[in-house]
Amino acid sequence: MLYELYDHEKPLTPGHWIPCPPISDRAAWDALPSGDQLVETGFRISRKSAAVRIPPLPLSLWTEFLRTGNRSHYEKSYFARRRCLCSLVMAECIEHQGRLLPAITDSIWAILEESAWQLPAHNSYLRDTPQLPLPDPAHPVIDLFAAETGALLSMVYYLLKPQLEKHAPSITRRMKSELDRRIVRPYLHTHFWWMGNGDEPMCNWTPWCTQNVLITVSTLHPSDLKMLRAVIRKATYSLDCFLKDYGTDGCCSEGAQYYRHAALTFYNALEILCSLAPGVFDSAWSDKKIRNIAEYIAYMHVSGPWYLNFSDCSPMAGLRGAREYLFGKRISSSLLTSFAAEDFCKDPDPFRFTAPDDSEGINLFYLVQTAFAEAEIRAFHAVPQVSVKAPAISDSDFCDSHFYEKNGLLTCRCGAFTAGIKAGNNADSHNHNDTGSITLYKNGLPLLIDIGVESYTRKTFSPQRYEIWTMQSSWHNLPEFDPEGAAFMQLPGAEYCARSVRLCEGACGLSMDLTAAYSAHGEVPELSSYLRNARFLPDRSFQISDETDYPGLIALTLMSREKASVSGSSIQFGTLAASAVTGAKRITTEEIPIRDARLRTAWPEILYRTRIYFHHKLTLQLV
Questions:
Q1: In angstroms, rounded to a whole number, what is the distance separating the alpha carbons of residues 497 and 424?
Q2: In the structure, what pLDDT confidence band is assigned to residue 387 with cuts at 50, 70 and 90?
Q3: Residue 616, pLDDT above cutoff 70
Q4: Tens digit of pLDDT for each residue in 562-606?
Q5: What angle do CA 174, 176, 179 make, to 5 degrees?
Q6: What is the pLDDT of residues 84-141, one digit of tens each?
Q7: What is the mean pLDDT of residues 444-450?
């Protein structure tokens, strides 16, 4: 779509991408609503020791990943360096007195001296291949965070070039040289897998890396029309490769938590392209798919911090912010602008300085974008808006649903409940073997849950991925065949899928055949039918009805945050909800300790796993 919009033979009509007012525009910088806060944050960081602001990155931290699979120790120091630099630069641009330049240039120098900008976990040149032991400085890898580093340093270059040059002569020449060597030339002359290759599936890496390369080139080489033309050609091809994997409905197969890395980086990439080639790409904003990609996040929201989640996505996908607001404004979506403005105005840290994810707060352009949009967002939110939430359910409107047909995902709201019902297959990016799984909320609180993913390690994205318990179907709200013997679970791959997927009457649920999700090639002996029907009933209770011809014992898992108590054929989930069960042979419950740091950002120390053992047919009704 974008590649075809651009006439690659026609001379480029020069345009300039201006990320924000230059710091010489003191009226603009002095008017920032959070200026005092940003300055205070920067100076608080400047008072810390150099070892805190610039934590060491010794070889032993790099090789720890190779020895043990641990990613977090190297990445914590790596991201801390960049987060500190962002805060220092924002404070210097606002105060504009030069007092932070020594700390800033120390941070810049340390990053320039790093042997590699890619992470150890990403040190490879081919997709899904083992990481190389050490980086090769002569052949830089552009991964997610090399590209993020490029965007960061190029924004520092754009904002502070004269001041940096005065304080440390020739440092900007070194910055430009390293950015050209590590980002610009490799981008133009090397094919990295995330750039796209025909029908090969892409993921959030594609727009995320592309956005940051565009930031780098646009700020370093704003007048090099030949280079900009080459970059536009590559960027539009890559973004088209990303878009091809989306249905017209705009569903992000990676889940709500990855929306900011996929949809929002696509938004910024397209905005930059529109600036570099005025008038060429503007029609893309009216494309139905792009609108649906933008609004997807609002339909996945449940209440407060909670989102319908699947795959590696956390149920706490974060508060929305300036980028969502600006995307909504660009496509004239009152749904997205209102949703984003409401979240932004209740966010105690819209600049992500204290985000639990270490990789947040390292993109200087996002900070600038937020700072200069803040006044408009707060003014917009101060004016009463037409309600954009799901309408209250009346007697004549049974439920409010949204079906993403390409991915087989139904979001459905009815009475006190919100449900996410996933059909699809087990080949999504960040996939868990969770075809047919259900997440259910009552009164805005999690009832039947998808745990998400533990902290990333080498194993997370390796051939051993599905040895990790959170990836397995038996830890989702799904059946397991022969649980006391072979314990047949779902398998990964596109052929392990839901079939005969149909919306229930009134779009109040989904029915599907899950046989192929377990036994696409006959892996489960004597299984030829497993029908699941998950729907809201007229009394607004939620029913799961499973029926199969499998002759052996089956265990249906129910994962919950609320403690499950069994009494006969009923299950009580804390004080939140109860379930009447028909067809159970026995029901067991167990506590599941949660110790992983990433999981603990969403869940308490103990979760609960209920197992309902049955033959042939089982029905649950949750009220």
A1: 6
A2: low
A3: yes
A4: 999 999 999 999 999 999 999 999 999 999 999 999 999 999 999
A5: 105
A6: 999 999 999 999 999 999 999 999 999 999 999 999 999 999 998 999 999 999 999 9
A7: 98
Residue pointed to by tokens 């073997």: 433
Give whole-number Cα distances, 434 to 312, 321, 410, 560, in Å.
11, 30, 14, 16
Is the pLDDT at 36 greater than 50? The verdict is yes
In this structure, are residues 534 and 419 in contact, taking their beta carbons and an 8 Å threshold? yes
> Could you tell me which CATH class the domain 2-12+25-382 is placed in?
mainly alpha
3-state secondary structure of 320: coil
Q: How many CB atoms lie within 10 A of CB 376?
A: 14
Give the length of the chain. 623
Could you tell me where the DSSP H helices lie in 31-71? 35-46, 50-53, 59-68
Using a 10 angstrom Cβ sphere, with 0-12 exposed, 13-18 middle and 19 or more buried, the burial of residue 521 is exposed
Provide the residue ranges of all domains of the chain, joining segments of one domain with +.
2-12+25-382, 400-622
- From CA 417, how far away is CA 372, in angstroms rounded? 38
Average pLDDT on 371-381 reads 98
Half-sphere exposure of 608 toward its Cβ, with a 13 Å CA cutoff?
Answer: 18
Q: What is the dihedral of CA 317, 320, 324, 329, to 10 degrees?
A: 140
Q: Which fold has domain 400-622?
A: Beta-galactosidase; Chain A, domain 5 (2.70.98)
pLDDT at residue number 391: 39
For residue 395, name the pLDDT band (cuts at 50, 70, 90): very low
Among 231, 390, 392, CA closest to 298: 390
**End-to-end CA separation in angstroms for the chain:** 47
Query: How many angstroms separate the CA atoms of 78 and 74, rounded?
Result: 6
Enter the DSSP assignment of 423: -
Distances from the Cα of 42 to the Cα of 29, 371, 388, 535, angstroms: 15, 14, 37, 52
Backbone angles phi, psi at 556, to 5 degrees: -90, 125
**Inter-residue contact 545 to 539 (CB < 8 Å):** no
Do residues 256 and 307 lie in contact, with contact meaning Cβ atoms separated by under 8 Å? Answer: yes
Residue 388 is predicted with a pLDDT of 53
Token pair belonging to 89:
């630069």
Per-residue CA distances from 432 to 244, 272, 466, 580 (Å): 22, 34, 8, 28
| Rounded CA separation 614/554 (Å) | 5
Instruction: Give me the pLDDT at residue 505, please.
Output: 87
Closest by alpha carbon to 376, among 1, 31, 13? Answer: 31
Residue-wise DSSP of 570-618: EEEETTTEEEEEEEEEEEEEEEEE---HHHHTTS-SEEEEEEEEEEEEE
Whether the per-residue pLDDT at 530 is higher than 80: the answer is: yes
Q: Which residue has the tokens 């029907």?
A: 533
